[in-house]
Design brief:
By secondary structure, the chain is an alpha/beta fold. Helices cover 32% and strands 13% of the residues. Strands 2, 3, 4, 7, 8 and 9 form a six-stranded parallel β-sheet that branches. Strands 1-10 form a two-stranded antiparallel ribbon. The relative contact order is 0.20.
């Protein structure tokens, strides 16, 4: 997103999802980087709506999720995992990563706020997930490379941050495919994760994501930092929501994200002091 976009119907979308079911919990296999995987990942335990469900039945996953700690994951040969199944719900929690949490940042990269967030994460030796908008990635390719070089996971967040459920299948594919391509061309690898803007999912989005070798990722804790509620409020939301497997949503672009930048170095040490590993999932 190149400029502040009012998030149309965000509370409505989240309210609909909450009214249909509780947060999806996905049972995953987790291990230290040096450990070998020990069995198939299980299917989601609880159905939860985050948009109309896909028609395709869920199939057993052909990969594992493991925490990436530092650059240890780079010691293993890089290989592309099997295409994922077509999901009917996004991942919202990653409980099998152990006593860990996942920090995610959407809408960037932004030339002002992203470097400051990267510096804080680097100082604390923490990795996060960055869901990039294609137009921002295309305009800030040096930052895309910096995110990748620091060992963070890069995800796809569409090209222009539209409401995906309002697009035709061709339009949705163009938004997603173009973004994957610019990330692949700039960072060296296509993304393996997709997050729908506004958390709006439908059958087309799930199917296109799977066809492009991406898993759908949502979140557990929304800081609502796009509302600029105040640095202390953002910190409180993260700390109040802290729990094993939690995925935290923040933003590094799309408007004035100075509160997000200020909050991160204040809550991050407190999470670490509470024994949380701030890590990222990766597919093998």
């Amino acid at each position: 997103m190149k400029y502040e976009k009012k998030q149309p119907g965000r509370r409505t979308l989240l309210g609909i999802a909450a009214g249909i079911g509780a947060a999806v919990t996905v049972r995953l296999i987790a291990a230290e980087p040096a450990a070998a995987p020990t069995g198939p990942a299980a299917a989601p335990r609880m159905p939860v709506a985050a948009g109309p469900p896909a028609a395709a039945p869920r199939r057993p996953s052909g990969y594992r999720l493991q925490p990436m700690v530092g650059r240890a994951a780079e010691a293993a040969p890089r290989r592309r995992p099997a295409l994922p199944p077509v999901r009917t719900r996004p991942f919202e929690e990653l409980p099998d990563l152990g006593h860990a949490m996942v920090l995610t940042f959407d809408d960037g990269p932004d030339p002002v706020h992203t470097p400051q967030i990267l510096a804080t994460l680097r100082r604390h030796q923490v990795h996060a997930m960055f869901f990039l908008c294609g137009e921002m990635a295309d305009d800030n390719q040096d930052l895309v490379r910096a995110i990748a070089d620091d060992g963070h996971v890069i995800g796809n967040h569409s090209w222009t941050h539209p409401l995906m459920t309002g697009l035709t299948r061709a339009e949705a594919r163009d938004e997603i495919e173009r973004t994957s391509e610019v990330i692949r061309r700039t960072a060296g690898d296509a993304p393996l994760w997709f997050r729908a803007p506004y958390g709006a999912w439908n059958r087309n989005v799930f199917e296109i994501g799977a066809e492009l070798n991406m898993e759908p990722m949502a979140w557990t804790v929304d800081t609502l930092d796009w509302e600029t509620p105040g640095t202390d409020v953002i910190i409180g939301r993260v700390l109040d929501g802290a729990a094993p497997g939690v995925v935290v949503l923040s933003h590094d672009a799309g408007g004035d994200r100075s509160q997000t930048v200020e909050a991160l170095p204040r809550y991050l040490p407190r999470l670490i002091d509470q024994g949380y590993r701030l890590t990222v999932p990766y597919r093998t």
